[in-house]
Amino acid sequence: MKADVTKGVLPKPMIVTSKQNKFLNALIRNNYNITKTCKAIKMSRKFYYQWLDDPAFKKQMDTYREREVDMIEDAFKDLVHEKNPQTVIFGLKTRAASRGYQEKQAIEHFGAAGIKIEIIDPNQKKEKTVEEVEEDE
Predict the structure, then answer these.
(1) Quick one: average pLDDT of 78-89?
(2) Are 37 and 26 contacting, i.e. CB atoms less than 8 angstroms apart?
(3) Taking residues 91-109, what's their average pLDDT?
(4) Confidence label for 97 from pLDDT (cuts 50, 70 and 90)
(5) Cα–Cα distance between 30 and 13 in angstroms, integer?
(6) How far apart (Å, rounded) are the C-alpha atoms in residues 87 and 78?
(7) N or C end: fewer C-beta atoms under 10 angstroms in the chain?
(8) What is the mean pLDDT of residues 56-66?
(9) Residues 118, 110: contact at Cβ < 8 Å?
């Protein structure tokens, strides 16, 4: 929120309550697990979801979620450096898909309607045309 200079109004600071702060501290200790955090501070998950309507708390949770993703990325990179095969494969499929490390191809079509696209399976036997049968005889 920006300050309204014409009226001399300053924005209210976004401050979480002491109970919300206790929750946020417990969240780190419980590896960002909401259920475990609620149990640790003897609080219902219902309150957590109600708190998400509070802009100050939601902003803090967004920050904590970013920290969680950073932590996961760090662990992922550690496993890649250890040459963990599953992690390397996952990393290539997700981060290097543009280089061909993917299991499926995405096809985008831009053009006029009415164009027929036929995908032919090279392993499937092709039926002979009448002309080809006559040539074989």
Answers:
(1) 94
(2) yes
(3) 78
(4) confident
(5) 28
(6) 10
(7) C
(8) 94
(9) no
Any idea which residue has 């096809």 for tokens?
Answer: 107
Q: Output 5 or 81, whichever has higher pLDDT.
A: 81
At which residue do the structure tokens 């299991």 appear?
103
Q: Residue 14's CB: how many other CB atoms inside 10 A?
A: 13
> Tokens in use for 24?
């946020």
